[in-house]
Design brief:
With about 230 residues, the protein is an alpha/beta fold. It has helices spanning about 10-25, 50-65, 85-100, 115-130, 170-175, 180-185, 190-205, and strands at about 1-10, 30-35, 70-75, 100-105, 145-150, 160-165, 210-215. The two termini are about 35 Å apart. Bound molecules: zinc ion.
């Protein structure tokens, strides 16, 4: 199985599903983190946007090394993502190349415009990647499932559907997050504290030490059971 976690900025994908991806990697599966932009415009004082872009790509590589995964950072510009045919086709081509079974991305509602575009891009690319009639350099069609995961900027309406026990993976997850300067040092948001606490809170609800969650896309949030769940006829 190959899991792709696609985020708007370096760091988003890791904080959202780093522990889940690590759990699957530990079980013998593969994970790739795709960042549409580096998130370079959160540059700290005294560091240029270009230098911070290079720093974040290096941090992403160190973070995924801890998780046993791969990292791909595309060259779109932070805070300038747009939804158009170019980006949809590029992501579709990348997914035909990577052949993930599942793509995990941001939730549909976000206070950050770049984040809010990611599920739209992933869904539009899902159609194009999966349509044999859509010609993309001769690559075979490939279809993948989509899930959303948690990011503090995307919480409007996010009610988790799936809780995954990541108790054994949480220490590595926090170590991966610690590779990012902004997660440990941002003065605008306490990233590290938030995600450590979030994993704890989700773990309480899941009756495990730590947990990370996923959500079905809107429209798929329907169980197709043949009876009342737990009360088979
Ligand atoms: Zn972001």
């Amino acid at each position: 199985m190959h899991i792709v976690v696609l985020g708007a900025h370096c760091g988003d994908a890791e904080i959202q599903a780093g522990a889940i991806a690590h759990k699957y990697v530990q079980a013998g599966h593969k994970a790739t983190f795709v960042h549409l932009t580096a998130g370079e415009k959160g540059n700290p004082p005294g560091i240029s946007v270009e230098d911070y872009r290079n720093q974040k790509i290096r941090e992403a590589e160190k973070a995924v090394a801890v998780l046993g995964a791969e990292s791909i950072t595309l060259d779109y510009k932070d805070a300038e993502l747009t939804f158009d045919e170019e980006i949809v086709t590029r992501v579709a081509a990348l997914m035909r190349e990577l052949k993930p079974n599942v793509v995990i991305t941001h939730w549909e509602k976000s206070i950050h415009p770049d984040h809010a575009l990611c599920p739209r891009i992933v869904q539009a690319a899902q159609l194009k990647a999966g349509l044999p009639g859509f010609e993309l350099d001769g690559t075979p069609a490939h279809y993948y499932g989509i899930y959303h995961s948690e990011n503090w900027e995307d919480m409007e309406g996010y009610v988790p559907d799936i809780f995954i026990d990541v108790s054994d993976e949480f220490e590595s997850y926090l170590e991966a997050l610690s590779q990012y300067w902004f997660i440990k040092n941002s003065t605008s948001f306490r990233y590290y504290d938030y995600y450590q606490a979030l994993g704890t809170v989700r773990g309480c609800v899941n009756r495990t030490k730590y947990a990370q969650t996923l959500k079905y896309p809107t429209g798929l949030n329907v169980r197709k059971d043949q009876c009342i769940p737990g009360f088979e006829l």
